[in-house]
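Notes to self after the call with IL:
- keep both proteins in one doc
- input above output, always
- annotate only the second one for now

Protein 1:
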Amino acid sequence: MKKIIFKGSGVALVTPMNKDGSVNYDTLGQLIEFQIKNGTDAIIACGTTGESATLSFEEKLKVIKFTIEKTAKRIPVIVGTGCNNTKIALESSLRAQELNADGLLIVTPYYNKTSQSGLIKHYTHIADKVDIPIILYNVPSRTGVNIQPETCAELSKHPNICAIKEASGDISQVAKIKNLCGENLNIYSGNDDQIVPLLSLGGIGVISVFSNICPKECHLIVKEYLEGNVKVASKMQIKYLELMNAMFCDINPVPVKEALNMMGYDCGNCRMPLDILSEENHKKLESIMKKFLLV
């Protein structure tokens, strides 16, 4: 069985911004403490929700360093280091390792994409050169490329590739990954609305956007399920489904950053090209947040 970086709920943490667009480290520190206090099992820094696409390389290193030092080994910190340039993905991964990251989250190459054999070469090239565990990140709706179950099976043979964040939305594919990989590849849900379904297929947790605003609740959904309280977990999944879906009423992380702003955290806006919420979506989000007593 492969190394387990964490079981439970990992938050795909936002990167708060000041009005001038710079990173707001005061608020980032507050968010980290909010997550740890409320039971989050791992922090994922510089992922999609952390706006890694619009952070410079130097900014990423500073955010990673700050997050690791602030977390102070209380829970694992996993760093998003994926890129559509294998050389840069490797360089980012090595720098994250130097900064004492507990693991790497590496998204599939995007835009230029690649074949399944190209995916194997890409991930193997990085995994051969790092000494910390890698979580594959499959999100074809954003990247345009899907890691096929057979490719997962091949990659799972590498000792440094320990898990996959599965955000394809295809439960049948998840079942096939589990069938082919068994205990050789841990599976995390990449979709908040499918936490319980994925756990039922042998998953061990979630890497969550929803956890930014409801860390305790997200942690409990996984905890209850893994402790055998399936009905409780299922009930929670259904209860919070509307709120989970509200976090995707616009392009992630636009809604979740605005939700955190409503909760009193000075997260600011997303960097361009992402835009602010429309007035209509803002009103809908605020109404749902009030319904769940978050504002």
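Protein 2 (the one to annotate):
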Amino acid sequence: MKKGRFEDFKFVTRFKRLNLMAQIALGLSLYIGLNFMAARHYRRWDFSSDMRNSLSPESVAYVKSLEDPVEIFAVVSQGVNDRDSQQIVRDLSSLLRRYEYASSRNAPVKVDFINPHLDNKKAEKLVQRFGSDLEDCVIVSGKNRFKRIPIVDFYGAENGADRRDFNGEQLISSAILNVSYGKEPKIYFLKGHGEMSIKSANSMRGLSEFVQSLRSRNYAVAELDLNESKRIPDDADMIVIAGAQMEFLPKEIDALRKYLLNSNGRLIVFLEMGPLHGLENIFYEWGIMSDDMLVLDSGGDYESASGDMIARNFPQKSHAIVHYLISMDMPVQFGSVRPVRPDMGAPVDEALKLEPIILSSKSSWGEKSYLRGGMQSYNSETDIPGPLPLAMTASRKRGADLGLTIPGGKLAVFGDENFIANKWFNRLGNSKLAINTVDWMFDENNMLNIAPRRLDSYSITLSQSEIYALALRFGALPIAAALAGFIVFLLRRR
């Protein structure tokens, strides 16, 4: 009697082997297919009490409405045992992955973390695209623009030391809006009053270094002569007055006033010593005054042999402009600087917010008789004791009487123009102070109603005996189950 094929031992062995291989192949295909589908189509649920692991509906709406892709590069220097930087990476990763998830396929948000000390090639490519000075920051890049956010700005605590309030969502959503806006912000530098020139490479009166830095950050820069132009152009996103030496005409002052008050304009003024040439009328409306005094300092740490002032003091509640300078312990080198302080005689305006940027030291004073030369000393009858504000910002909120917080105009006044000149611009923290002021002027964070997230950390302190007790309690059941299984195995073998 002829045996069947399935009665043949060799055939059955081969068949079982093929069957096993087919099962393995099908299992792998199922595993890969499920993971592929899960990677492309998945949902996230946030079960935290305050929804801290989710983006606000406002941010989700902005991300969903993107028309072009957005790239986010988190450049963080992290060592093996650097717990601080590792925690920063965890905070940023948790936030930025939410933007990836919320974005659409047509305009995705792509996130990349880069350690500049290890990923040298990636770091070099970033420098080629966005310029230098990219360490410890987050770069948000759109189609035509990018924005750089220092890591220290993400944390609400002073100097980033005690990280409790995390402003990440507000900053990233604002940056995405900023870089997705197709038009480059345009900055006009006034001329016609002896101002410093954006086209000049002169070391003392040229601004070519400042302008080059602005253009590398996607700002459009041009000159504006109010004597030739009947009004301020509609595309003027900001105006800069750098070291004016002659009087402004009444029509020019009126145009600047209307630009700030009616058009929610932005104005930065860098002052020389001497008269204000009519700008005091604008300052009065914005609660600022600048005395015709020279800030002197008897402390050797603050005044160099050349007479330049090294300012390293900041208000207790530091301005957003100088957060980076404080974190890097970076001072600013001014030339002949005058005080810029609140005008106590200005009308009270609840919609107006005044903030000092940088201060002189306690050993400084405002010298009224600086023109006489020679050795100067503090005179309590005519001089002002320090510390004195050397720069201030004033910003208005529109609709305050209706309970709204619509951003209004912004004014920044510096008591010195020398620090932005070509000779001083790249010294110490001068360039950071100037560029950060421009960035703050265009900052749209206040337009986003996104509150900072509280970073709560929990820790458990256990003694060695308590650790052993916990290990015994949690390990008793698995060990008992494993032991029971081993006993059953032995009994079955018998």
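Annotation: The longest strand covers residues 389-398. The chain has eleven helices and 20 strands.
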